[in-house]
Amino acid sequence: MDGELNGCIDTSHVKNEAFHNTPIVIEETLSSSGITLIALWDILADARYRVSWPEDRRLPLSKDTVIAVYTRQGHGEIHLHDGSVIEPHGHSVVFLKPTTIAHYRCPGMLWDLVWIEMVPNGALTFPFRSIISLSNEDRLINECAEAIELLSREPERWKSLGVAMVTKLIYQWLAVAGDPLPASANLKRVERVLEALHQSMNRCWTVTEMAAIAQCSEQQLRKLFHTYTGQSPKRYVINAKLDIARVLLNHKRLNVAEVAEKLGFHDSFHFSKAFKQRFGQAPSAHARRPPQSGIQ
């Protein structure tokens, strides 16, 4: 879809070097009861991806603009002007003020994200810079995909429904951020482990290694993972790897053996067996699909 993003006509100035990069730019910004959506980008990036946040060429960003970065899979780095670095990981969201952003990049194998630019219409309180870990991954990913599809449709009423769905997601994320979490120190233990996992998905992680990062016993780590992710540490790692594998098979020219090796599986047989158990299809069914087109 053609259009401007904060005054930039050439979209390559804004989001570049990604093997799937779909701009959904609202030519006339649409509003719901909660937000006015400026733009939304559906991005699947690899290690080539690095974006310097562009200065506006025509219209300055409103001081009320908010950026939401929803990471579905993988790991990213967002560098701020004050020298700090935000490192979102799948499955999480972070809210930022656009004037604080210097640049951002994919430091590893993959960063699968949705970049949302919006202006809140009501009295919403955003926990800026805090990475919010999300559960119910499949449901939220599906809802986000449906919103993106609606924003791409004509006539305008479908776009309005898409903005309403984005607004619902924003409220869900804020509700998660606002929920009082007992044992927040334990949550931080789990988040440290998740960050390490998503930074090194090619490793064959053991529970012992993860417990060392969390600075707790293996038994305690298993309890914490069940509390905050609903999965055991081992199951979380396997599912995260398989989710990334499906993305790589769908979007990159990699065969099953290459993906299995890249993600640290012992061999293609065990990878294929685990993949079919999770998704009901052999990985070869995904590998045969032609890569999706996108901005390169």
From TrEMBL:
| Keyword field contains Transcription | yes
This entry's Gene Ontology molecular function terms read: DNA-binding transcription factor activity; sequence-specific DNA binding
Q: Where is the HTH araC/xylS-type domain?
A: 191-289
Keyword list (alphabetical) reads: DNA-binding, Transcription, Transcription regulation
State the InterPro entries in the record.
AraC_XylS_family_regulators, Homeodomain-like_sf, HTH_AraC, HTH_AraC-typ_CS, Tscrpt_reg_AraC-type_HTH
Q: Which SMART domains does UniProt cross-reference here? A: HTH_ARAC
Q: Provide the protein name.
A: AraC family transcriptional regulator
Q: Name the domain of life this protein comes from.
A: Bacteria
